[in-house]
Specification:
By secondary structure, the chain is mostly beta strands. The chain has a single domain, classed as Maltoporin, Chain A (Beta Barrel), CATH 2.40.170.20. The chain contains five helices and 43 strands. The strands form eight sheets. It has a 22-stranded antiparallel beta barrel. It is globular and about 80 Å long.
Length: 791
């Protein structure tokens, strides 16, 4: 039995213990008369039976605001959507929002044609690592408007919102089983603790799944506890703690490229023709491979309405995260066909030296928001002024070593070891795969290949003024964000500016940069059910994974962006149909690229240097529609189109200008239809169907396969394998869910749910070039109690 399967009962024991704690917490009787608690301006209103639609958000404004009144685009996906469509993980299968792809548990995502390496959790910087069971909703603010949070991707930001405590006494236990040996047990409870003004939510879950590839397995342990207290003076205190641990054995590998040499000795005719999708269905790494991530997070927020004008919110977060891997860097190598050397044909060579990577990260932040609501000109102009002061700190320690298993390395590199995989014409292995034989415990550790310590601390603040004019028909806002970023970095292996470090005397890099970024916009209500909006905003982005040598470059600058958003929002059919149609134009600057420079000038000697002078331009449009057809039927659509191109990829890569940005899907989105029975035999029954679409996507760098030489002082492409043209084909997936819920007595209810994902068993490559899941069938059962303990 592997380590991944040794604790199948751990979750259930945990859940029983939590159940006992919950029962003890409920011994205080409820108040005889319901107390009214004033809602904070920093709190989104809870909605009973909200379904897939959220009316309010704090993302982008930092205070609760109606989404229809925002002069930019915010998309929301609720936990009800995740449950109805059988989504166990929030990852790159989440493509239902137009413009959003590539969501990654490590913190990455693609939005409006731009890639990011970090996200937000409840408005604070986050490295991904989230459990689906404790996320109430995902809010996506699009465009540089996300600069309200400081450093951000030009395309926007993803904000994971935690489930909130609830004074309602409830408990539920869910079991889910299905394809790929999938199993999950989840316990969730809410209620009061000693006082009707103190209430909580507690969640514990364990998730397991495999895949068609041998050795692959995921286990996730998730825990979440939040307690909220409403003070008599109108203040609110929220404290939460979250635990996440993911063990991933033998991670999936991407499909390698195929090069056709066309039976020629002239390399100018060689051409890269595609990906070996069938080979991606096999596991390259084997049993002695792992990629694990963990995170522990603490959160605290206090808010209070001080007067009829002023309210404050003080929040803080601390976190520590860990990522460790072993032998997940030896994936399948490129494949050659039609070579004049027969031995080179139809083989894929896996990596020679497995390594052991460790990344330890920790940090935190504080935010102080002060908001003032007031009227001017005898109440003719309603105003909201927001002043924010915040600080964030991030630290990373990342020693990486080669495997020290000398005997195993020699055997792995020897002829006939199986490291070189012989393939059939359909790119499947001709024989069962063999794997690197040494585990981490057996092999020890070899030479260091990376060893840095990095710290980035950001001190910032912003001012934002919002005004409502002309009897609330015109909304305007303007704001300014200021940040000071301090880097303190150490590199123990890399030569920087000619200085060779040692483990005792590392290269030390200290740097400070400042950024000031404005935003301005307006929304005009032509009619109550028809609005037009436009805005201009700027943002900056600092990648926390930048190496010290990059920070030390005298030319270093943070990436910046400028963008326009404009469109219409409206409703029809007595507000049952709501829509947003928008377009955008965003420019990204200071991207690090490779330039060709004559040194010294006039010498005829050209060298390549890395400089932050690259540009990217993205234009596109999006459409979002939600329609409540009647009491039983509802539907919705989200779709996005983006044209993302490089306008400057460096003078050393001249042909890349105008080519598409890799891994950015030009079009994607989804549509859903839901039926909810409310009477007769169909009472308690619901059915939902969803369709997602991802268009053909370029997946290689814009200079991939190009060979460049200096001719008459000009960098010129002398030959190309056209690797930069490679794409993964478009794919459409259908997902279906059936749910039946019934009550038992006054306090218990039961829910059965059947989900079929990828209904038509589509065989496809994801944009990551990993193989997509085939058809999956899942069954879940939930036993719930409401008001039982208080009675």
């Amino acid at each position: 039995m592997t380590a991944l399967n040794r604790r199948p009962a751990g979750l259930f024991a945990w859940c029983l213990a939590l159940s006992a704690v919950t029962a003890l917490a409920q011994t205080t009787p409820p108040p005889k008369k319901e107390e009214v608690v004033e809602l904070s301006p920093f709190e989104v209103k809870s909605q009973e039976n909200r379904g897939y639609i959220a009316a309010e958000t704090m993302t982008g404004t930092r205070v609760a605001t109606q989404i229809k009144d925002l002069p930019y685009t915010v998309n929301v996906l609720t936990s009800e959507f995740f449950e109805d469509f059988g989504m166990f993980q929030l990852d790159d299968t989440l493509t239902q929002v137009g413009g959003l792809t590539g969501l990654d548990i490590g913190g990455g995502f693609n939005l409006r044609g731009f890639s990011s390496t970090s996200q937000l959790r409840d408005g604070f910087y986050r490295l991904g690592r989230y459990g689906e069971t404790n996320v109430d909703r995902i809010e996506i603010i699009k465009g540089p408007n996300a600069g309200i949070y400081g450093r951000t991707s030009p395309g926007g930001m993803v904000n994971m919102i935690s489930k909130a405590p609830n004074p309602k006494d409830s408990q539920k236990f869910t079991l889910r089983y299905g394809s790929f040996d999938t199993s999950q047990g989840t316990f969730e409870a809410t209620g009061t603790v000693g006082s009707p003004r103190t209430y909580y939510i507690v969640i514990a879950s364990q998730f397991n799944r495999g895949a068609d590839q041998p050795w692959f397995h995921i286990r996730e342990n998730q825990g979440f506890l939040a307690v909220k207290h409403d003070f008599d003076n109108g203040g609110h205190l929220l404290v939460s703690a979250e635990y996440f641990m993911q063990y991933r054995n033998a991670p999936q590998t991407s499909a390698p490229i195929i090069t056709d040499q066309k039976n020629s000795a002239v390399n100018t005719v060689f051409e890269v023709i595609g990906y070996a999708k069938n080979l991606a269905k096999y596991n390259a790494f084997g049993p002695n491979s792992e990629l694990n991530r963990s995170s522990q997070t603490g959160f605290l927020a206090y808010d209070k309405k001080l007067t009829d004008v002023f309210s404050i919110r003080l929040g803080g977060q601390v976190f520590q995260a860990r990522r460790w891997d072993y032998n997940q860097n030896t994936g399948f190598g490129a494949i050659t066909i039609n070579s004049l050397t027969a031995a080179n044909n139809l083989t894929s060579t896996r990596g020679a030296t497995p390594n052991r990577g460790l990344i330890f990260e920790n940090g935190g932040g504080v935010q102080l928001d002060t908001v003032a609501r007031y009227n001017l000109f005898d109440g003719a102009v309603a105003n909201k002024t927001l002043v924010t002061i915040d600080a964030n700190d991030y630290y990373r320690y990342d020693p990486t070593r080669n495997s020290g298993a000398t005997a195993a390395l020699a055997a792995w590199g020897a002829a006939g070891s199986g490291r070189v995989v012989a393939l059939n014409p359909d790119y499947t292995p001709t024989a069962p795969l063999t794997y690197f034989s040494s585990s981490l415990a057996d092999g020890g550790q070899g030479a260091l290949t990376r060893y840095t310590r990095r710290r980035a601390t950001v001190y910032g603040g912003q001012f934002r003024q919002e005004s409502h004019w002309l009897k609330d028909t015109l909304l305007t806002y303007f704001g300014l964000r200021y940040d000071n970023v301090k880097f303190r970095e150490r590199d123990y292996l890399t030569t920087i500016n000619g200085v060779v470090p040692t483990l005792a005397t590392p290269n030390i890099v200290n740097r400070s940069v400042t950024q000031s970024k404005p935003n301005i916009g307006a929304l005009y209500k032509v009619k109550e059910n028809f609005r037009v909006y436009a805005n201009y905003s700027e943002s900056y982005f600092i990648n926390q994974t930048d190496n010290p040598i990059d920070i030390a470059n005298p030319l270093y600058k943070p990436e910046t962006a400028k963008g326009w958003d404009y469109g219409i929002k409206g409703s029809l059919l007595d507000d049952r149909l709501n829509y947003t149609l928008g377009a955008y134009n965003i420019r990204r600057f200071n991207v690090r690229v490779t330039d060709s420079i004559e040194s010294p000038v006039g010498s005829g000697n050209f060298v390549t240097v890395t400089q932050p002078d690259g540009d990217q331009k993205d234009t596109g449009w999006e459409a979002d529609v939600n329609w409540t057809i009647d009491r039983a039927w509802s539907t919705g659509l989200s779709y996005g189109h983006v044209q993302a191109i490089y306008t400057n990829f460096g003078s050393a890569r001249p042909e890349a200008v105008g080519r598409k940005v890799q891994n950015i899907s030009p079009e994607n989105g989804g549509v859903y239809l839901k039926f909810s029975g409310s009477e007769g035999m169909l009472k308690g029954f619901s059915a939902n169907v969803g369709v997602t679409y991802v268009s053909e996507t370029n997946t290689e760098a814009p200079d991939a396969g190009d060979t460049v030489a200096i001719i008459a002082g000009v960098p010129t492409v002398t030959r190309s394998t056209n690797q930069w043209k490679l794409t993964v084909p478009a794919f459409t997936l259908w997902n279906v869910g059936l749910t039946y819920r019934w009550k038992q007595g006054a306090h218990a209810d039961h829910t059965l749910r059947l989900n079929v994902n990828n209904v038509f068993d589509k065989d496809y490559l994801k944009v990551s070039k990993n193989i997509g899941d085939p058809r999956g069938i899942y069954l879940s059962y939930t036993l719930g109690f409401s008001g039982l303990l208080t009675h």
